[in-house]
Structures
1.
Amino acid sequence: MRLPIDTGTVKFAAAGPAEPVLDYETRAPKLDENGTALFAVPLFAAGTGIKDSITVKVAGDVKGLSEFTLVKVTNLIATTWEVGANHGVSFRADRIELVKASV
């Protein structure tokens, strides 16, 4: 099941740098449908009673991330998965970008 998430009431901050997503068997970088490398971005999410950490996959490297860097997440989708007895939720976004500090 694919569920879009309204990110309008949630603030996101990086929990560390983006890491390339690698194929488990070949250790080669995983690519999206356009041939762009996928990266996993660890994020803190907080707002309206939510406090959690998630990892979001996004096409292309997100430069300049360090712990607690504020980011904007565009078109966040949660997808449920099941493999045998294991199950969970994965997250994918169209874009993750640094939030510019206002003066």
2.
Amino acid sequence: MSKYSFLDDYSEGCHPKILQAMTASNMAQQTAYGHDEYSKRGKELIQQHLDNKETPIFFVAGGTLANIIIMSSALRSHEAIISAATGHIAMRETGAIEATGHKIISVPSADGKLTAASVKTAVASNAHYPHMAKPRLVYISNATEAGTVYTKAEVQALSEVCKTNHLLLMMDGARLGTALTADINDMTLQDIAELTDIFWIGGTKAGALIGEAIVIPNAVLAEDFEFHIKQRGALLAKGRLLGQQFAELFDQDLFFELCKHCNRMAQKLANAMTTNGYGLAAATESNQIFPVLPNSMIETLEQDFAFYRWEKADDEHSVIRLVTSWATEESQIDAFIAAVENIANRSNTD
């Protein structure tokens, strides 16, 4: 029997509604390169959540592509990005941004977030012009790599410091759905559109087969953006593949319902870990859980479940990462909790 995976939130294919819609429309002829009726509908449904119904939206296949296209189009060769040291572009994109010729200025962060104060410090520390790369774009992700969620006040403060220092504010939204449906969230898509220059909505981790939607409130950044998509090899001839998935995700708010499920499953896991006396390396605010468990327990759990050993805690304990998805079965959450309790009970009686 194969192991049940808590490795990520994209181990499954896509939500059945998406697959059914794509199958039903399979033989319908459509205009290529994203000018199809499904992409138009997908954009319209997203725009209904924004203050400006004319906000440009572009679909691309993946998150790394979205980040590369955004930064390479928005920045001149001497301009740099400010990111939390744990940010996805700094840690887990194989130097994709640096490969475009742009320096990443890494800022230490205990919870994966940037603050207005940390951005000010980064700007001041990189101001020996023209001998240092010039900070121009602030990169944040919501939810962060640590699973934490930005509040509206935190993003407002970042937006203000960016405007004061002539910086662009970008939000990586690979897990934006779980951030927006988190219990502590107080932001909407409209708020994000008002506070950032550019952001993207992750479909891949929210029930789509593939696809991310880049939203560009800043009109200057939107100009000729499609050319940059084409130059980076990201303009799909069958753009309908991406557009139709977002049309289905945002029809009757399926996107938000699926992400709420992610968070509910994650919170159930987190509560069970703390109830059984195990700490968490980070607060569980979205769909990533970071329990600190004995290495012996981890080895036993790995026989039936797949997950990442995230980092060493001490000689006898490690932090693991568990990720719930739109398709996570609650019975598997219960099975994982039962396995933890059984191992703990055996250890206590030995």
3.
Amino acid sequence: MAASCNASLVVGSYAKWQAKGHLNDFLKAMQRSFQEARKNAPGILFIDEIDAFGSRDNVSTQNESYDTKAINGLLEQLDGLEGREGVIVVAATNNPHKIDAAILRSGRLDRHVRIPLPDLRARAAIFRMHLRGAVEEGRCESFAELSEGASGADIQKIVRNARRRARGLRRPVTVADVLLQLPIPAPIPPDTMRVNAVHKIGHAVVGAVLGMDLVSVEISSRILLTTQNQPVGKATFGRRSWARRTKAHYLDAIAMGLGGMAAEQLLLGCHDDGVAGGRGSDLYDATRTAILLDRSFGMGDGLASLGDISEAPLIDISRMDRSVLVRADKILRAQLERATEILERHRHACERLVDALVAGLELSRQEVLDALYADGHVEPRAVRSG
């Protein structure tokens, strides 16, 4: 980023600034980084692993004074009297929910970009960058195809290990060195692929019937044995920027989110634990949406709002309001039943779509809608969305 902007780069982190341990030294080190960035403006100040600052809402009593003053010191540098004209502050984290809310407010770190795993083209570019012309450029495309699901750090490790092997043999790195370090792709068993297809078709059909802008639905035929937390499929929906987010909007979102669970129960007899887990899992996200609907947006049984709790841990919310999970459960059960009714009405179309998805690995929006039209029971909203 700094190179493309022709700007200077200053790198800092909580760990780097806190190296000497004393609060005074910590604050001085952080101030020096900001001063260096201002001196060399235009420039970018990059703060790595910013979640290390934590949140003042969750500090332990033992470290409360230190952590609070560290966060306050950062806030002072972000918008203090000295200003930071010509300096853009960029931070990175894998745990955005652990960052103090004040750090993310307008005028501070208020633009948030989620960086997904690199696609085929990006992986090839990352291989080219790290290999620096050591192999033919066309080979990087082959490496990219064999590293689906790998992160930039994974690719860097692959190349580093390939170079280490070449050094041990006292010769330049070769294609074979890289291939030996690449993850081994393993085929997903047919029965598992079918379960994945059932789950994703559940999301796609419920969403399409409720009038959402389905883009496509897909599943994977293989995974990489050395890479964790790989997606095995997805149903992609477009966003409507100006749509009103009413109670009906959120209930539709919950029903679609539970469509995979409903499809597994309907077509397979039960659901497995793949629908649950932490952030990003169907049941967790649906539960959070139900709680927001009831306790933030005034769309539940009462009007009292707990404010913005979109990033608060669910366990903390439930401790604050012991009845919140009971009310959320009522919403979830109603929307799961609703999703099941939709899938039951279109059961024959779902079964055909599952077969087609297993065979082709990807279906377009039109292919899903065509199957629903042929089924003869498409809701008006799904017709209008086409």
4.
Amino acid sequence: MVNTLYLPELREMLAENDSAELREFCTALHAARTAEFMEGLTPTEAWEVLKHADRETRAEIFGYFDRDKQVEIIETGDRTEMGQLIANLPNDDRVDVLNHVEPEIVVELLPFVPEIDRRDILRLSSYAEGTAGAVMTTALAKIGEERTVREALEEIGRQAEQLETIYYVYVVDNDDHLRGLVSARQLVSAMGKPHTKIKDLMERDLVTVRVDDDQEKVAQDVARFDLHAIPVVDEEHRLIGIITHDDVIDVMREEASEDVYRMAAVQPLVENYLETALHSIWWKRSIWLSWLFLAEMLTLSVMVRFESSIKEIVALTFFVPLCIATGGMSGTQAATLITRAMALGHVALSDWWRVILHELAVGVALGVTLGAMGFVGALLTPDSDSLGGANPYMFALVISQAVMAICVWGTMVGSMLPLAFARFGIDPAYASSPFVATFVDVTGILILFTLAQVYLF
């Protein structure tokens, strides 16, 4: 509602080419708010507004536009202007947006980007998607370990305009091997001793990530050690970039979204939900749903196998939904807990035996609780033809034991599947509610009717 109030005024300023007002509009508020007020403008109109801001402000506001608007502006804009815009964007952000631009347009744009920025773009673009190299920035503060505090402050002052963050200043040797770091706070605190060598101040025990490490591991390390930024090194421990906390937030949001999709057996959506084509949503949802449907049809085969038992004791079918729901819910709980624990780094593949023991104990406790409830529920089944002349207490015992066994089984399956998936390089989130429930449904029916065969026939 608030945004629309500005649109007529903005369009009037554009129509009158009121440079002074447009320039003030671009600088009066935080860049994020300015971009928000421009949401209703077309990409062409938005760029016409941005042309009245200085280069740095223009790039900052542009960074808060949604990705589709950014891409359209770059693809339709003047190549020289777009080259200047790209050069002023943060190193990692410009690579992200260019990954969504048509490749032939990127080829046309690169000659208009300054050579040093062009080399940086090509270098960052070479790293695989989802790795530390793909999300890092090369705009960082670094100095030699033989520098003094005074020299370091002077050098950082010269570098400041090109830096994304100055939380940490990284200390390197002549070949860019990472030796340590000093925080901005340490440097300011040492201003009273300007001749102190940086090597006497720096921290040497650093948390680093390799350029080919998975971005999810990077996010875990930053969260675990409460870092503002984390250095990225190559196989020879040379410093090649950093990943800042704002990029880590984006990674965590992306990973969390993917996990939510996969736990619902849906292929992750890239676009906005309402803007995603119907056929795309159909395809992403139908892939897993079709496999799960075919797997669920195995319950039909199990039921057919025990057809004679069902005819004799119809009451068994009354408890089929109860038993499979018990297995599905217990398995889903376990799968969710283990998947989350793995994402947070609380559980590793080597902990599988501890997980088994833990979940076995929990599964038995839950099984006894639900089995007792199932015994009472089965005992209340009306003594009629549906029991086929079976002893009510024996029937209740069958249901009770089936519920307990299925609960334990569901818990074990749910806890082991994420670990098994991870062992074979599959995202543990795929051990999702539908997947676990489908697997336990089939085996749960088999457990119920097998116990019935043993006790009642």
